[in-house]
Amino acid sequence: MPFFIIAGAINAAIAVGCGAFGAHALKDRLSEHYLAIWETAVQYQMFHAIGLLAIGILMSSSLLGPSAQLSWSGYLLLIGIIVFSGSLYALSLSGVGILGAITPIGGVAFIAGWILLIIATLKFAQ
Length: 126
Description:
The protein is built from four helices and no strands. The protein is mainly α.
């Protein structure tokens, strides 16, 4: 599905931009602790952007084809990027510790998305 390929590419571009922003503009403005949190957000955004690209490609009719499990997998990875990486970006910039409490919700979305990808693949293999 083109949506997940586009969403993956957009998120990969944003991750590269945020990585560069952190390395150059934030390097002297954030403590090492918050800079490390920023870098974690960038890494997870990029990993899951690549996951979105893979899901979009797998939805091709010549591969696994469209399915509810693949769609939900993609949406959960996208939600995970927004909640997980977004909360870490906000925490890094604001220092508001309570934002870290939101991060695991994004992590659960990531895990659920990857599990649905496994299920979609197993259904296809049967």
